[in-house]
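Thanks for the sequence, V.! I ran Mechanosensitive ion channel inner membrane domain-containing protein right away. Repeating your input here for the record:
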Amino acid sequence: MLVFSPNFAPMTDYLELFINLIKQPLIQAVLYIIGSLVVAKLADWIIRTVLSRLANQTSSTIDDRIIQILHRPIYYSILFMGLGISIKLLQLPDIITFVFIGLFKSIAILIWSVALFQAFMHFINWYSQQSKGKSIVQTHTLPLFDNVGKVIIFMVAGYFIFISWGVNVTGWLASTTIVAMVVALAAKDTVANLFAGFFIMADTPYKLDDYINLDGGERGYVKHIGLRSTRIMTRDDIEITLPNSLIANSKIINESGGPKENERLRIPISVAYGSDIDKVRSLLTEISKASESVCENPAPRVRFRSFGDSGLIFQLLFWIEKPEDRGRIVDEINSTIYKRFIDENIEI
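Predicted structure:
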C-alpha cells in the first residue's frame, strides 16, 4: 500500500490553483497574445533568414523581393489571429467583440492588399525585363498593369472587408450595378476618359518622357499617363493635364518615336536671281556644319528646290538631337545665314 505524505498536499493545492488560474479568461487571453507574438516572431525570423538564404542561392532577384514584401503581412496575420482569439475569450459584449474582430480583419486585408500589389508590380517589372519586348508586358505598358492591378486588388480587398463586417455583398452588388449604370450615364465623359486611358496604355502611341505634339497645339514631355488623364510638361515648365478622351481623338505626333529621337529640320532660303548657286550651297553647308546643335551624322544637305517668283529656292536639311530644341536651333541657323549672306554680298 502506498501512503502519501501530508507534505505533498501544498503542492497539490498549488497545482490546482495554477490550473484554476489558467482557466481564467483574462489569463488565457494574455497567454494567446504572448503565444501569437512568439509564433509571429518565429515565423518572421524563419522567412527573413532561412527562406532569404535559399532565395539568395537563385540567379533571380524576384524571389528575394517577394520574400521581403510578404514576411510582414504573415507576421501581422498571425498576431491578429491571436488577438482575435483573445477578444473572444474575454467574453465581452457582442458588439465590442464584433467591432474588434472586424477591425483586425480589415487591417489584415489592407496590409495583404498593399503587399500583394507591391509583389505584383515587382513581378511585372522583372518580367518586362526578362521578356525583352517579346510580350505585352513591356516598359511602356507598365502604367497599364499598374492601374489595372490597383483596381482589381483593391476591389477584391473591399469585397472581403465588407464580408468581414457581415455586410450582404450580393444585395450591395445588385444595387451597385444599378447605381453604376446611372453614374455611367451621368458621368459619360469620365467613363470615356477611363476607356481611352486603357486604350492609350495598351496601344502606347507614346510613353513616359516622350516629346509629343497634338493637333490642338499642345506639346511637351509626357510626365504621367493615368486612367483619366495624361500630363505633359511644356518647354515653359508648365504642366498641362489633358483628358484621355481628347488625346484619343487627336492626331498625335510623337517626336521621340522611331528608332532614334533625332529630328530632321528643313529651312527654306530664297536668294536673288543671278546669285552664285555653288557659293550659296557651300555657305549653307558650312553654316550648318559649324553649329554645335546640328548632328554630324547624317550630314547636313542643301537642295536647290525650285525657281520662285522673286528668287531661287534652296532648302537646308539637317538633323538635331532633341526635338524640343527646334525653335532655338532654327533661330540660330537663320540668324547666322542672314549675317553670312550680308557679309558675302548674297541678296536674299
